[in-house]
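thread: overnight batch results

M.L. [08:02]
morning all. the overnight job finished for the chain we discussed friday. pasting input first so we're all looking at the same thing
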Amino acid sequence: AEDIAGLIERQALISIDSYEEPLFTSGKLEKDFFTYLIIMLEDYYSVQFSDSMLEVDMFDTVNKMVQIITKLTGF
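M.L. [08:03]
and the structure it wrote out:
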């Protein structure tokens, strides 16, 4: 979770207060950042998200991102 939060904070120049904090639905991150986030996570974790996974709600919190990546990597 720290890795993901750090990546987002550095790239979007924001501060994440909680891993449960809504990032997109709260407006803290712009919807335009979503595509960049997906590419960044795929590159960093060497994963590929299926089209059915590419919904903002599924990536709205750091914890949700961790769950998806854990499911894909098995770690």
